[in-house]
Amino acid sequence: MGRKVSTAAAALAPLLLVPLRAGAVPCSALGATPLVVVENGDTQEPLLKRLGQKLIASSTPLRIVYKNRRTCDLALDLYSGARMANDTIPIRYVPSAAEDPTWEPSKPSPTCEADDPGGLAIDLGIGATYLSSCTNLPAKPTELREIAGPVQAYGFIVPKASSQIAITAQEGYFAYGFPDGTGQATPWVDQALRFGRGPTASTALTCSAAIGLKATQLKATVPPNNTSSEVLNLVATSASPEATIGLMGTEVYDQSRDKVKLLAFRGFGQRYAYFPDASATAFDKRNVRDGHYLPWAPTPYLMRVDGAGNPTSAAAARLVALVAAGAIEADVNGLDQVIASGLVPACAMTVQRPFDGANLSLYAPPEPCACYFEAKVPQGATKCTTCTNDAACGAGKCRRGYCEVR
After folding, report:
1. Per the CATH hierarchy, to which homologous superfamily does domain 150-296 belong?
2. 120 vs 116: CA distance, rounded Å
3. Cα 384 to Cα 266: distance, rounded to the nearest angstrom
4. Strands (E), 71-143
5. pLDDT tens, 308-343?
6. Which is nearest to 376 in space by CA: 312, 309, 326?
7. How far apart (Å, rounded) are the C-alpha atoms in residues 180 and 384?
C-alpha cells in the first residue's frame, strides 16, 4: 500500500538531501544484521537501549536504529510517511559487543547517518502519551496500527536542596499557568526557574492535563533542544533550589534519583499527595498501578500493516511483541526489559483511562503479572506465594513463578 505524504512531510524535503558529514558512519554499513528503524520519545530511549543490547546479542540478532523525537512529532512522521533524515537530531544505534565491548545502556549510544538520499524508512513509532492529545495529527492512515504499550508515569522534580516534598494540582495550575508576577504557587513564582517541554512532548501533554492546563498554556522555560536530559540538568544544577521545578518522566527520574527529587502529587479531588511508588525510595509504581498517583499514560506503538492487517516489518512486529505483549524468547525477555526500564507493563495495572486527564476505571488484565513485577523491580519484594503450578494458588493461577489473582 502506498504511503501518504502530507504538506508537512514535503516541507522536510530539503533536510533529506543533507549529505553525510565527513567521517560519519552510514547506517547501512552497520553489517548484515537486520535493522528496525524507530522514532521514539526520549523517555523511551532507556528501554530501547536495554532491549537493543539483548537483541543484538541474541541467537537471531536484530539491530535497533533510533531517533529521539517528541511524541506528536514522531506520530506525524508516521502518519505522513516521512522518512528519518539527517538533521540536528542524531540518528543512534545500539552497538554489538564486538563493535564496543565497553558499551552498556547507561552510556550514550553511538550515531550513524542516513546515506539514502531519501532518508531511512521508519519501521516503528513509539510515543509516550495518548495520541488523542496531539493537535497536529490528521486522520490516522489505514496502513498504521496503534498498539498500547507499557505505562509511563510523569511528575514534577525539584533540586535535592529544595525543602519541597509535594505539589497539588492547584499549585501546578497556578505555577505553570501564569507568567511571572501573576501566579500564586510559592515558591515556584519565577518562570525562568520553571522548566518544561514543548507542547508536542508527551511530558508536557500528560503533566499539563494533570493540572488542568493544555500543553500550549504552560508558562515554562523550555531548554534549547527541548529534551528530558536538559530539564534534568537544569533542575539539578540550579543555584536557586527552592524556586526551581521541572517536568520529568519517572523512568528518567529513576535513573537520576541522586540528582533531583520527585514531588508527591495530589490531584483534583484527592485528599492526599502520593508518590508514584509506595514510598519516596521504592520503585514498585504501586500508586500508579492502583490509581492513587495520577500523571501517567500508556506508550502508543505505531506499526505499519498491509491490507490484511499484517505487519509489513517482521523486525518491528518482533519488537512490539517483546514490549507490548511481554514476549519471552530463548535469550530475550521482553517483560524483564520493560520492568528494568522503569515502565509498568499493562499486566501489572489495575486501573485504566481513555485519554490524558480522564477519570480512572478498574482494569483486570487477562494475564496479571503484578506479583512478578513487584519481585523484579529494583529493591523488589512481593508477598505473593511462589509456585511451580496452579496447585499452590487456590483460586488464583501460577504465572511466571508466582500465584497471581487469576
Report:
1. Periplasmic binding protein-like II (3.40.190.10)
2. 7
3. 29
4. 91-93, 111-112, 124-126
5. 999 999 999 999 999 988 888 999 999 999 999 999
6. 326
7. 51
What does the domain layout of the chain look like in residue ranges?
Answer: 7-148+299-340, 150-296, 366-406
Distance CA 326, CA 346 (A): 9
Q: What are phi and psi of 126, to 5 degrees?
A: -125, 105
3 state DSSP class of 205: helix
pTM of the model: 0.89
CA distance 75 to 39: 9
Beta bridge pairs of residue 298? 151
Instruction: Report the relative pairing of strands 296-304 and 144-159 from DSSP bridges.
Output: antiparallel
The predicted-structure confidence for 120-148, as pLDDT tens digits, reads as follows 999 999 999 999 999 999 999 999 999 99
Q: How far apart are CA 72 and CA 200, in angstroms?
A: 5
Backbone angles phi, psi at 324, to 5 degrees: -70, -35
CA triplet 315, 317, 320: central angle to 5 degrees? Answer: 110
- The answer to whether the beta carbons of residues 209 and 247 sit under 8 Å apart is no
Give the containing element (helix H, strand E) for 321. helix 314-324
